Amino acid sequence: MQVGLQHYLVVSALLFAIGLLGVIIRRNLLVMYLSLELMLNAANLALVAFSRFNNSLDGQVLVFFIITVAAAEVAVGLALIVALYRKRQSAHVEDLTSMKL
Amino acid sequence: MGLPDILFYVFAAFTLLFGLLVVANPFSRNPVTSAMFLVLTIISMACLFVLLNAFFLAAVQIIVYAGAVMVLFVFVIMLMDLKEEERRRIKTFGVVAGIVSVGIILTVFLKSLVGCGDSSCNAPVGAGAAPVIEGDAHALGMLLFTKYDLPFEVISVLLLVAMIGVITLSKKDLK
User: Fold this and answer.
1) How far does the CA of residue B19 sit from the closest CA of chain A (Å)?
2) Cβ <8 Å between B159 and A7
3) Which whole-number Å values give the CA distances from A98 to A30, A101, B25, B47, B90, in the listed order?
4) Nearest by CB to B34, which of A6, A34, A80?
5) Are B133 and B139 in contact (CB under 8 A)?
6) A-chain residue closest to B104, CA distance
7) For chains A and B, what is the number of CB pairs under 8 angstroms?
8) Domain range spanning residue B153?
9) Measured at the alpha carbon of residue B26, what is the angle toward residues B20 and B29, in degrees to the nearest 5?
10) Which residues in chain B (116-175) have CB-CB distances under 8 A to chain A?
11) What percent of chain A has pLDDT over 90?
């Protein structure tokens, strides 16, 4: 069977699901952040596949922008996590309950 | 089944396997292990990009993601005390809720893919007549500096904003 758009989209959907699972079940802020990156990459894979099978480069330019935004997001997010760690000495979501009623 | 098809299955399997090991590694709950498996996921995904003719993006993926971003991640992980994290137990309620919700969203995704007919949208558009596009640096650069000129400039401002934000956030006396 010829590998087509559908195959790539199934891989992308599965990868997104794995990332979402990580965000929900892991309680460590850093691992949750890594899973977030996994979800972004799943979107990238879908966009590149669309670009290839539509015979147009626009999808790849979009992926280029997504990678840039992801890099900026990682820098800001990690700075937030480090600032939080300095204050609370923990990177665990269950220790961050000061906004709980 | 040609060689590209076999390579697709190999690299897709690698991508999913390593992705699963990032999230749920049965041997280690150490974030450093997760980060290393994310690097492997990204590299196998770059191989998938090559199979999709996106050569420049494959290089960018490896240099920016597996290089710069992951170095930043590992650097921050090293700053923190990780011994405590491995002791914690994963709550069963969280795991069940996670699997149920992910199952629901995956069902929605895969159902939406079933509607796509085999012959109509699996073959590349114009694979017979027009030459298949290649995402090399020249073609991508031409598009980036003509059609996507404004977004390109805007994203450079975004990087500047992110840089200033990070410097402000990592000050010693955060107000």
Assistant:
1) 7
2) no
3) 19, 8, 30, 44, 21
4) A34
5) yes
6) A17
7) 234
8) 136-175
9) 90
10) 116, 118, 121-127, 130, 132-133, 135, 139-140, 143-144, 147-148, 151, 155, 158-159, 161-163, 165-166, 169-170, 174
11) 57
Cα dist from B59 to A71, B63, B86, whole Å: 15, 6, 35
- Residue from A27, A26, A42, A20 nearest B104 by CA: A20
Q: Rounded CA gap, B112 and B162, in Å?
A: 36
Domain C-terminal end among B53, B76, B102: B102
* ipTM computed for the complex: 0.91
| CATH at residue B39 | 1.20.120.1200
* B100 has a chain A CB within 8 A of its CB: no
Percent of chain B with pLDDT over 70: 83
**Model pLDDT, residue B129:** 46
